[in-house]
C-alpha cells in the first residue's frame, strides 16, 4: 500500500478525493484501504456512485486526470483472471442496484448490476418466477456474474447468463451511457461485454429472460470412479433424450478404480427391490448427477427411466447433493477451468491426472465439457507451469482449452493464465474501439489488454 499512499500524496490527489466525495456523497468516496485490491493490485481510491449519472461523472473525472477505473461488485471473483496494470479508482457498483417493476406476465426483468443474484431470485420467487441463473459464487451480484462470464449447472439447458440477455446498459470509458440490445447487433455488443472483467465497459443494468419456477425438481445420482466411466454414462444420459436441466460431475481426488464386489453382492444390488434406493458406496467414489425439472408426473416418469438406465447404484432425491453449485477449489488454490468437447473430456482429465501425478479434484458440467479443477496452493509455480503445458498440449488437438481462473501471486506471475486464445485479434480491436486509452481495467484481458 506504500505505493498507493505516495501516489495519493501527490499534488492534485486531494482535489480528486474532494471531487469523488462531491459526486458520490461523503460516506461513499474514500482513499482505498488494505482490502481494496484486485488480484493483488492495490487501489488508490474507492468510489460508490449512487446511480448511472454519478458513475458517469466518476469515469469523466478519471478521463480528465488520466486515471484507470476497475469496477467491483460483491468482490466474490475479484481475484479471478490477470491483475490489472493499475487500479486508480475502484468503482463499487453496490448502489447501482434494484429490480425493475414489470407485470408478472413480462418475459424479461431489468436488474441493476450491483444487485445480489440471490436477492433477484428471492424477489421473483414471490410471483413463482426465476432467472435460470445459478452461479456458484455466494453473494455474487448480477454485474459480477456477467462480467466474469460465470455460469452454474443450469447452463446445460438454458445457456450461460450472457446467452439469456435481452439487453444491457453500460457506461463506456468516456462515461457515456449506452443501451445495447433491441436487435441482433445490440445483443452482439452486449455479449461482447460478458466475461470482459470490466475492461470494456462498466455494467449498469441488464434485462434478462424470466421463466416460471419448475413445479418439480429431482436429482438423479450415480456413483462414478473413472473419467472413462463418466464419458460412457454422459453419452448414455444425452442419448436418452430426457431433457436434463443439468448434468454435473464431482470427481474428488480420492476417486480411484471401481472396487470389486463378490457375486452375491452384485446380484443383490441388481435386484429390482434395490432400484432407486441409496446404497453405501466405497470411500472415494465420485458422483454424476442429473437434474430433471418440470411437472411432477413428467419429472417422476423421466427420473424412473433414468434410474433404470444408469443401473442399481443410482438414486433419486428431491434435494441437491452438498457439493452442487460449489467449486472444487478453495481460496489460495490454483483454480483451472477446462473446456473441451464432451467426447474428449475424459482425455483431458486423464491428461491432468498424468501431469499432476495423481487424481485432481474436479467438478462441473460434464454434459457440456466445462469443468473446474484445483491444484494445491503450495504447489510450486514451475510445477503448475509443467502441468498446464501437458494438459494444453492434449487439448490443442481436441479444440479445447485450459485457463487459470485464479492462483497465488507467485503462480500468477510465472504462468500463462490464458494459453492460446482464439479471436485475440478481434478482442484487441474491440478494446481499441471501446477503450482506446486503456482506462478500464487495463491488463485484465488476455494479451495484456
Q: What does this molecule look like?
A:
The protein has 449 residues and is an alpha+beta fold. 32% of the residues lie in helices and 22% in strands. It has 14 helices and 19 strands. The chain has helices at residues 2-8, 13-24, 52-64, 117-125, 142-148, 155-158, 184-193, 227-239, 263-269, 296-310, 345-356, 381-396, 409-414, 424-434; strands at residues 29-31, 37-38, 41-47, 69-72, 87-92, 108-112, 129-130, 165-171, 177-181, 202-209, 211-212, 216-224, 246-251, 286-294, 315-317, 334-339, 362-365, 370-375, 401-406. The protein has an eight-stranded antiparallel sheet. Strands 1, 2, 3, 4 and 5 form a five-stranded mixed sheet that branches. Strand 2 and strand 3 form a beta hairpin. Helix 8 packs antiparallel against helix 11 and helix 11 runs antiparallel to helix 12. The longest helix has 16 residues, at 381-396. The chain is globular. It starts with a helix and ends in a 15-residue tail after the last helix.
List keywords for this structure.
single chain, 19 strands, five-stranded mixed β-sheet, eight-stranded antiparallel β-sheet, disordered N terminus, alpha+beta, 449 residues
Global morphology: globular
How much of the sequence is in beta strands? 15-25%
Helix content bin: 25-40%
Question: How would a crystallographer describe the biggest sheet?
Answer: 8 strands, antiparallel
Unreliable stretches, pLDDT < 50, 5 or more residues?
Answer: 1-6, 261-282
- Helical segment tally? 14
Strand order of the largest sheet: 15-12-14-13-17-18-16-19
Average of pLDDT: 90
Q: Tell me the distance between the termini.
A: 24 Å
Tally of strands: 19
* Rg for CA atoms: 24 Å
- Specify the structural class: alpha+beta
